[in-house]
UniProtKB/TrEMBL annotation:
The keyword Oxidoreductase does not apply. The keyword Transferase applies. Coiled coil: none annotated. Keywords: Transferase. InterPro entries: Glyco_trans_2-like, Nucleotide-diphossugar_trans. This is Predicted glycosyltransferase. The lineage of its organism: Bacteria, Pseudomonadati, Verrucomicrobiota, Methylacidiphilae, Methylacidiphilales. Residues 6-185 form the Glycosyltransferase 2-like domain. GO terms for molecular function: transferase activity.
């Protein structure tokens, strides 16, 4: 069967979430021929057996080690067919008309190279689905405050957009891209192991003169970080790595230095504050933020080694 849409899901020990995502694809109310590709990034939770039993129609690809998100997606995209490529997180679930609505928009708006959906929490509340390109202001300031004070420059869930709008980038839990533009840009940048891959891709899309759109009419349920919560400390270190890489690639070098100094100062103040609160409450305060902060500080003190963070093996 020739497919006009290829859906790629990368999974690493997220069997139950993956099952829900695939069930939502099965229930999609559209007649679009689809190729669904699951790339297994070294899972050890019975993912392969589950797919063979319940979803034999899925093209299953596997790496024995964790290649990272970008490399896994690029490896899967080699097998993609059709005009469109959808990157779907394993902790996302489609509404019945999500694909139909998104493809309909893309078909009638040829300037749109990438579109994203309105992401929803389990209780139906809105998640942030739009992302600005990282700058010193966004990374050293308060993003929620920026969205409230400057909603046109920093659109977000607080503004509850009702109409499709051109944006800088969209959150990658549902990331629909024209296949010819994907090929033109060479897919995701594999220097990013986890986090910022889609932001980087959207940056390159706009550089080429194409558009990225947020579509509020397309609804997608999203676990928001459930895939990372199984290794929370390691995922946060990976986030810091990718943020630094993004600045090195796309921002002037002096900005990278200012970012690094600013983030380290903020981290230091946060550790002092959290430590004092922990002592004053005799250990009754939740120490999760403190534990993560100390691990990130330790990573810096060790010279930011690549072997700290999410497992590559």
């Amino acid at each position: 069967m020739n497919a006009n849409l290829s859906i790629i899901i990368v999974s690493c020990n997220t069997q139950l979430l993956l099952q829900e995502a695939l069930l939502s694809i099965e229930k999609s109310q559209d007649s679009l021929p689809k190729l669904v590709i699951v790339f297994d990034n070294g899972s050890k939770d019975g993912t392969e057996e589950m797919l063979k039993k319940f979803f034999p129609w899925v093209l299953y690809l596997r790496s024995e080690t964790n290649l990272g998100f970008a490399k896994a997606v690029n490896s899967a995209a080699v097998h993609a067919q059709g005009d469109y490529l959808l990157l779907l997180n394993s902790d996302a679930r489609l509404e019945a008309d999500s694909i139909k609505q998104a493809i309909r928009w893309m078909e009638t708006h040829k300037e749109c190279a990438v579109c994203g959906a309105q992401l929803l929490n389990e209780d139906g509340t809105l998640q942030n689905s739009i992302a600005n390109f990282p700058t010193l202001l966004t990374e050293l300031g308060n993003k929620s405050l920026l969205r409230k004070l400057f909603p046109k420059k920093f659109p977000g869930k607080e503004n509850k957009p009702k109409n499709p709008q051109a944006v800088e980038s969209v959150i990658g839990a549902f990331f629909l891209v024209r296949k010819k533009i994907w090929d033109e840009l060479g897919g995701l940048d594999e220097r990013f192991f986890f986090f910022f891959e889609e932001t980087d891709f959207c940056f390159r899309v706009l550089q080429k003169g194409y558009q990225v759109y947020y579509l509020p009419q397309v609804k997608v349920w999203h676990g928001q970080g459930k895939t990372a919560k199984t290794a929370l400390v390691e995922a946060r270190i990976e986030y810091w790595k990718s943020r630094y890489k993004y600045f090195k690639i796309h921002r002037p070098y002096p900005e990278f230095l200012i970012l690094k100094v600013g983030l380290l100062l903020r981290l230091s103040f946060s550790l002092i504050f959290e430590s004092l609160l922990y002592l004053l409450t005799l250990g009754r305060r939740n120490s999760e933020r403190l534990r993560i902060g100390y691990k990130i500080a330790l990573w810096h003190l060790k010279g930011m080694p690549e072997n700290m963070g999410l497992s590559k093996g």
